């Protein structure tokens, strides 16, 4: 594979690469070899922790030999190299460590429903990406695999928990990679790495064959560089599996088709402050949010200052309890895998705090936390009133340094107080089940990405507005120092 050609392919998004395969200009095998070449050049990022090159090559050859790619009949992303987050996207027979030393040699016994949908869409899976233990942290620096670097700067985290996927996409290894979001784990890395990060609405995708995660707070999707790729990937995985505890209403039309339509005039609330106790929002972030508001107003939308209110203390307490019990599930999962009680030093210190508190959590406390989440969701929805969208920061400041968002704080609640002081609004999309998207609409004076977040009940609303902003405030030509594609002319 010619390295120059491999670099040129990195400049294309997933739909662009798939179009080349559909035209016959390149094969799926050639797209994959180019991605492998870029991955090998990016080993210093530590974004990919499990290589699946042989299975990817077998899949690419099978796609090429089937003739399914020709003419684009296989779908808009068929033949495109793709990476899976090593959490929530299990692939039968592949290592699945979930960032945990206790699971360092665990092999997934089954393939997740969402991965089956990715494969059915023709995405060529050839590796798994780094993630913090059990997705507990909004940074990616697990002791098992080590920290993942941010292609924009070695001094800042790529975010988490989908940090490995975000780093690989931001560097140009792949145009898209899978992610999951429980309190911001798609949107935070998107903001840190200058990407599009959509958290779908609750139950848009399925956790099958598992049940649910964090009582419905978590949902899966992907990190991309373009809005259209996010829409196409959501089309590929939307829907529920038989037996899911709940399902989202199906969209009235394909998401990819919807972004070509001008959206109706939306009523948008805009806020730059945090709903949780936090330092004042960094002026550069506040300016990015306000600039996005002006762009949307110029596009004909009604912008009004304000935000729904809720009891942030109640929310933080409930989130802590849900994570405590979730981490007890991790402990029990590791115990079943190891055939013995896991040792304390086989877990991250902050995870151990959650487990210790989780073992002491009474059933009624867990039930009360679920009820509290529902009550605050209703309060949030009532506060939105007739407004369609909430426009807020993704992070309250530019990307943070390492060693901040993964540290134990003595209690789980104290841990989340630190997280929420950085992330602000992100967790409320998970609490309410609303869709939310982070867009790379600005940079700092030293070139670091700044994400702006939109929240709404449905993804179509967000994707249409995101497509408008992509035209009005384009980010495609912004490239990190660690970019592996062709240099900008």
UniProtKB/TrEMBL annotation:
SUPFAM superfamilies: Amidase signature (AS) enzymes (SSF75304). It is an enzyme of class 3 (hydrolase). Gene3D superfamilies: Amidase signature (AS) domain. Pfam families: Amidase. GO terms for molecular function: amidase activity. It catalyses: a monocarboxylic acid amide + H2O = a monocarboxylate + NH4(+). Its EC number is 3.5.1.4. Residues 30-458 form the Amidase domain. Belongs to the amidase family. This is amidase.
